[in-house]
Write a structure and sequence with these properties.
By secondary structure, the protein is α+β, with helices and mostly antiparallel strands. The protein folds into four domains: 209 residues, 2-Layer Sandwich (Beta-Lactamase); 93 residues, Beta-Lactamase, CATH 3.30.450; 178 residues, P-loop containing nucleotide triphosphate hydrolases (Rossmann fold, 3-Layer(aba) Sandwich); 135 residues, Helicase, Ruva Protein, domain 3. It has a five-stranded antiparallel beta sheet, with helices on both faces. A five-stranded antiparallel beta sheet has the order 10-9-8-12-11, sandwiched between helices. Strands 14-17-20-13-21 form a five-stranded parallel beta sheet. The longest helix has 22 residues. The radius of gyration is 28 Å and the shape is globular. The protein starts with a helix and ends in a 9-residue tail after the last helix. The structure holds adenosine-5'-triphosphate. Adenosine-5'-triphosphate binds next to α16, α22 and α24.
Length: 650
């Protein structure tokens, strides 16, 4: 590859990222990724990066997170690799963060593949590697080919990568399957089959994982070809003994055009033109012979086959969920204000709005500090139950010996040390409102059993009482741990899990959100108001905050801003006011502000020093970036933000 090819590529990427136009015909998915790389991640195509290979301990930690899934995926990968082994491809499996957790390639080429990052442990997120098959698939959660100069980094131009997303049985994005080659023909069309093969195996792996996950459930398989439906249903729904759906594969989610959470919990009779008797017949017959099954509403016809559950010792509870309509969600300010322009969050909030007033238990997953309690409260306040109590319980923070009496309450004299009049437990205190059970994974097993009973019977038996008390209970449970792993380890009841997850909301980590600026400004405004201040962030402080990885998520963001407000001059927070961990991430950001902000005024004033430097250096971005100690991409980004256009482009 010539230097000229590389500089043309760099110009093209920057032109798209800054002005939205491209010299070549690369597609919108790729353009959006280039914009993210430059504008959100501060990457510069003129500064190529060597592949980042994580340490073996980190790799192990990533592998452990999806160990069971990897076993299923490995079988599919080996089959797929047999079909492409002579063609110079390597096969990567990455996790949802883009870290390569499994790999099959030609050992003879291992040194070259390792050099190019097509290897175990390589991190292919956009943030680390720029636009690439895996990273862009992680960001967009859709299949794509990233071919040659679609890549962001000019050193990746020889590569071609076709990637497809893999989702878990609840529709949560889990991994990426990627087929890559070190060299390829010029035309992107040459990778058409590679992409289709990758998508096909991704679905096969997903379905194998689905069948493993729901081996104790009935599985309804649907296909458009009778001969194939028994071996590979395109659409699969797992359901319980009552005919209520407990899981839907990607094909089924596509068919019903809804989030998995909406299909899950619906009776099959609501989704298909079936009478309850048909379900019984289905269960007994195993297959439906030549009989067809028709979807309600859209009237699509499929052939059906049924797989019986693995024999099991006891019947399980079922989730009863009211049907959800798919009408556009209404405006709910409490929920709407929780996110800015981030697709994952907007989708999540739309889903949350559809769940309102549906007498449905909700499970919220997310790292610590991502706002699980905040969204639980917003759901409560937006619901018809808003005037009733919202009772929050942190199951991890109450000593095990006290959880039972705290939750279920006790009667007078129930035990020594109790209050003389007895105590109304937290469950009864939440009657008619919402009980928020934080860190539900920490609830001891015997209390899980009692909670399950309360949920199914809607009555509580306080300690020492001889008669149960009716309760109108709606639970929102939250956990930062994957409850299915706890089920596997025997510390969480599967039936309680299904009772709780009428719908599951996965809150993204702050580092993965595209609306960081919105959240920073929102939390700053909230904190400043508490102190009666009117403060804003200087350019360099905002830059440091946008680039920080935020392991403690929004809670850490709030703490950092609280700290910065306390040490700042009360009007402008500069990088020097931020805790050290935020500024030491950049060698380019000195303790003193790189772009001095003018204290009184907003962002317009911050543009002045930049404009001044550009004029003095006759619009040379390179010289300005050196003077201000900022990456070139950052200078371009600020120019775009403040609408500074060089004279030759006006
Ligand atoms: N959308 C948001 N806007 C403003 N602040 C938020 C938002 N989401 C969360 N926060 C703030 O982040 C902090 C943590 O929120 P919250 O307690 O809801 O997180 P969590 O996920 O429940 O944490 P944990 O898992 O540790 O219990 C709180 O200070 C909250 O005010």
């Amino acid at each position: 590859m010539t230097n000229q090819t590389q500089s043309r590529h760099i110009d093209n990427v920057m032109s798209v990222a800054m002005h939205g136009t491209a010299a070549n015909g690369a597609n919108e998915l790729i353009h959006n990724s280039w914009r993210r790389c430059v504008n959100d991640y501060g990457l510069d195509p003129a500064r190529p990066k060597a592949p980042h290979i994580v340490t073996s301990a980190t790799l192990r930690a990533h592998q452990e997170q999806i160990e069971e899934f990897m076993q299923v995926a490995r079988v599919g990968m080996e089959q797929m690799y047999k079909r492409v082994s002579g063609l110079g491809y390597v096969l990567l499996l990455t996790d949802a963060q883009g870290v390569t957790v499994d790999y099959i390639g030609n050992d003879a080429r291992a040194p070259d593949l390792k050099k190019a990052g097509l290897y175990l442990g390589a991190e292919w997120s956009e943030r680390s590697a720029g636009t690439c098959g895996v990273g862009t698939c992680v960001a967009e959660q859709t299949a794509l080919t990233c071919h040659r100069d679609d890549h962001f980094d000019p050193t990746h131009i020889p590569l071609t990568c076709s990637a497809a997303p893999l989702f878990d049985p609840e529709g949560k994005f889990l991994a990426v399957l990627d087929l890559s080659a070190l060299t390829s023909p010029t035309y992107k069309e040459s990778q058409h089959l590679a992409l289709h093969l990758t998508m096909m195996y991704a679905e096969m792996i997903e379905d194998a994982n689905f069948l493993r996950h729901f081996q104790d459930r009935w599985i309804l398989r649907l296909g458009t070809a009778w001969a194939l439906v028994e071996v590979s249903g395109e659409i699969m729904l797992a359901y319980d003994d009552d005919g209520v759906v407990v899981g839907a594969n990607t094909g089924a989610r596509r068919l019903f055009g809804r989030a998995a959470g909406d299909v899950v919990g619906q009776p099959l009779t609501a989704l298909f033109d079936l009478a309850p008797d048909d379900l019984l017949r289905l269960a007994r017959a195993g297959t439906m012979g030549e009989r067809s099954i028709v979807t309600r509403g859209s009237n699509q016809m499929f052939y059906a086959s049924v797989k019986a559950p693995r024999p099991r010792p006891a019947a399980r509870g079922s989730v009863v969920v009211e049907a959800a309509d798919s009408a556009a969600p209404a405006h709910h300010p409490e929920l709407d204000c929780l996110a800015g322009d981030d697709n994952t969050m907007r989708r999540l909030l739309d889903q949350a709005k559809r769940l309102l007033n549906r007498k449905l238990n909700i499970l919220i997953h997310g790292e610590t500090g991502t706002g699980k309690e905040v969204i639980a409260k917003a759901l409560h306040r937006s619901s018809e139950r808003a005037h009733k109590p919202f009772v929050a319980v942190n199951c991890g923070a109450i000593p095990e010996s006290l959880i039972e009496s705290e939750l279920f309450g006790y009667t007078a004299g129930a035990f020594t040390g109790g209050r003389a009049k007895g105590m109304k437990g937290l469950i009864l205190q939440s009657d008619g409102g919402t009980l928020f059970l934080d860190e539900i994974g920490d609830m001891p097993l015997h209390l899980q059993t009692r909670l399950l009973r309360v949920l199914s019977e809607q009555e509580v038996l306080p300690l020492g009482a001889d008669k149960p008390v009716p309760v109108d209970l709606t639970v929102i449970a939250a956990s930062h741990r994957d409850l299915r792993n706890l089920i596997g380890a025997g510390s969480f009841r599967e039936d309680l899990y299904y009772r709780l997850c009428g719908a599951t909301l996965h809150l993204p980590a702050l580092r993965d959100r595209a609306d960081k600026r919105y959240l920073i400004e929102k939390v700053l405004a909230e904190e400043a108001e508490l102190l009666g201040m009117d403060a804003h962030l200087s350019l360099d402080a905002m830059h440091a905050m946008l680039c920080f990885a935020w392991p403690g998520n929004i809670r850490q963001l709030r703490n950092v801003l609280r700290f910065a407000l306390a040490v700042s001059d009360g009007r402008t927070i500069t990088a020097a006011d931020l805790p050290q961990e935020l500024t030491e991430q950049f060698s380019v950001l000195p303790a003193a502000p790189a772009v001095p902000a003018i204290a009184s005024g907003g962002e317009d004033c911050e543009a002045a020093p930049l404009l001044d430097a550009l004029v003095r250096h006759k619009w040379s971005v390179t010289k300005v970036s050196e003077e201000l100690n900022l990456a070139r991409a950052t200078v371009y980004r600020y120019m775009k933000k403040y609408g500074i256009v060089p004279p030759n482009q006006r």
